[in-house]
From TrEMBL, chain B:
Gene Ontology molecular function, alphabetical: 3-phenylpropionate dioxygenase activity
Rieske domain sequence ranges: 3-98
Enzyme Commission code: 1.14.12.19
The name this protein goes by in its record: Bifunctional 3-phenylpropionate/cinnamic acid dioxygenase ferredoxin subunit
Keywords for the protein's UniProt record, in alphabetical order: 2Fe-2S, Dioxygenase, Iron, Iron-sulfur, Metal-binding, Oxidoreductase
Amino acid sequence: MAGIRVQKVAIVGASLAGLAAARALRRQSFAGEIIAIGAERHQPYDRPPLSKEFLTGAYTEADLALGHDDDLGVVWRLGVAATRLDPRGGSVHLADGEEIRADGVVIATGARARPVEHAGVHTLRTLDDAIALRDDLRRGGRLVVIGAGFIGAEVASSARSLGLDVTVVESLPTPLAGPLGPEMGAVCAALHGDHGVRLLTGVPVTTVTGSDHVEAVELADGTRLPADVVVAGIGAVPNVEWLAGSGLEISGGVVTDANGATGLPAVVATGDCASRDGVRSEHWTHAVEHPATAVATLLGTGAGRPPKAPYFWSDQYGVRIQFAGRREPGDTVRIVEGDPEQRSFLAVYERGGLTTAVLGMSRPKSFTRWRRQLRAAPQEA
Amino acid sequence: MLRPVCPLSAIPSGEAYRWDTDPPVAIFHTEDGEIFAIDDTCTHQDASLADGWLEGCEVECPLHASRFDLRTGRADAPPAKKPVRTHRVEVTGGVVHVELSEDPADLPPGAKP
């Protein structure tokens, strides 16, 4: 890509990664035109509080705003989705018929909540999703959360603090076993019970009943859970359908190398929609940091900073869970500080005598120290 | 008014000290040997910057990676937008003294008052 003189960049996706790309373009001295296209009608906003402070009412919509720097000189085209990328013509087509020509494209269309085929079941990904859920939770009553991942757990925690009667249903035997491993997944899942939330594991949902509003969630073992509100937090799917026919390789996301390069010159991808080595990183920190690398690839200004160890956090029931590193199945885990029973501890994951990851529960200071060591350690290329 | 806070020896180089005043103040001892004092609470969300990651003259919030310039208080990286206050520091006789800013503090939404 180096050598192509880029004069106009279209950023497709106007959330965290798209905004970070715009900032990175300017920081890397790109003085040309930037147009950012976003399917949502809102200016870029921060999603993590949607399941927490925004649901409980501690944050308002204004508190979520991310795009406060007017000096970026970005033209925002919001509330309209991109429908097609034509790399030969060098253009992005929009749902309203507009065609935007550009000689560099940053794909940052992110992901959407995995949908649930039942009217009235909430999912939570966007501000509009959160407004609708918040309004329903305010009425109180019984909430059933389908999926005990981080989003589900945070929604359960927020709803519990609002006084709702909450049940969480998880089809896996141990929640969060994927990211945290079974031992630590079980420790985190115990937070539900600590706070009066029922957790049912190892039982899939068979159906949600009710016509104009939800009435109950039914499980494979015959259990019927009456509900006033149902939320499904069962993962996300990348927004990549619009790229069909573009010539880009799509396999569980836009296939890129570590630097965001795709198979097409002048097109890079970053954030949740990008897949590297078959894995999409769906973490906030990745969406903040990686666009700078992708933009450097686009401009041909060389590789960005070397990748840091993946990091994510979750706030639930007044407890802060932080995780950094690359845990793999089979890694051993040991507590190096504190006590899981006290819901305050630090655990490290190891493989072959090397630390692969670290998990902290309400231990931000020591977590930071360990995370720093992880970052300092050489990462695989 | 300068107030004595702690002996300088209580803050090793590269570390921070959380002064439990109201609102709390974080005092940093950089690798270069400089001492800075800023509000301890991240302006984005209730988190202690003294628990953060000190790099040069910047501290990264331990939760969400907002970065603040210790010299100016400026938020250099999101999600924080508002600056933290900076406070004047003097080290006299091996003791760290801090004069609290008279500006109003920018505390995050929902933070404990």
